[in-house]
Amino acid sequence: MTFRLGNKLTGAFTGTASEITFAITGFSWSGGDRPEIDITTGGDDRRKVLAGLASPEEYTLSIKYNGEDLTGEMEDCSVGSLTVSLAPDDNCGTPTAVLAAVPVDIVSWNHSVELDGILEGEVTFRRRHS
Q1: CB atoms near residue 59 (< 10 Å)
Q2: Which of 68, 71, 83, 107 could make a disulfide contact with 124, Cβ separation 3.0–4.6 Å?
Q3: Does residue 86 fall inside a structural domain?
Q4: DSSP line for 9-47
Q5: What is the pLDDT of residue 1?
Q6: Residue 3 has what pLDDT?
Q7: 15, 16, 54, 95 from 83: Cα distances, Å
Q8: Residue 94 resides in a domain
Q9: What is the pLDDT of residue 122?
Q10: 25 inside domain
Q11: Alpha-carbon distance 124 to 61, whole Å?
Q12: Total domain count for the chain?
């Protein structure tokens, strides 16, 4: 299945007090890198390494939404779930979840513009691992 960025790309954050839906204009997904830990000793004739712990995954979304209180959710130190859906390029009417109800914390949020009651901004979520 092929996807096209901007083809009904939407997100939903289900937090402590509410569910907030928004249009996504861009996103990045980072994390999961595992550094190497050097465990070489003086008696070794070759370098020895082990994989370290994976860095946390973060999802940074550029969004537009109609004024629901994402800032209030952030101030409540919200734990919730993030779903990001995207429609296949051959069927613009049936979005498919590319991230489905991933447990997250809101890490940061900023407004960039308010135009005609539509807010634009960027929000970063950090994945929770239990």
Answers
A1: 21
A2: 107
A3: yes
A4: -EEEEE-SS-EEEEEEEEEEEE-----EEE---TT-SS-
A5: 41
A6: 44
A7: 12, 15, 22, 11
A8: yes
A9: 87
A10: yes
A11: 6
A12: 1
Per-residue pLDDT, 77: 59
Which residues have CB under 8 Å from 130's CB, separation 6+? 103
Print the domain residue range for 26.
Answer: 10-33+54-127
Burial 4-41 (b: 16+ CB within 10 A, else e): eeeebbbbbbbbeeeebebbbeebeeeeeeeeeeeeee
- The low-confidence residues of the chain, meaning pLDDT below 70, are 1-7, 67-78, 88-94, 113-115, 117, 130
Nearest to 5 by CA among 62, 49, 83: 62
CA atoms in the 13 A half-sphere facing the CB of 3:
14
Side chain identity at residue 73, one-letter code: E
Query: What pLDDT does residue 100 have?
Result: 84
User: Residue 106 has what pLDDT?
Assistant: 85
In a domain, 39, yes or no: no
Angstrom distance (rounded) from CA 4 to CA 90: 9
Nearest one of 17, 8, 24 to 59, comparing CA atoms: 24
Residues recorded for the chain: 130
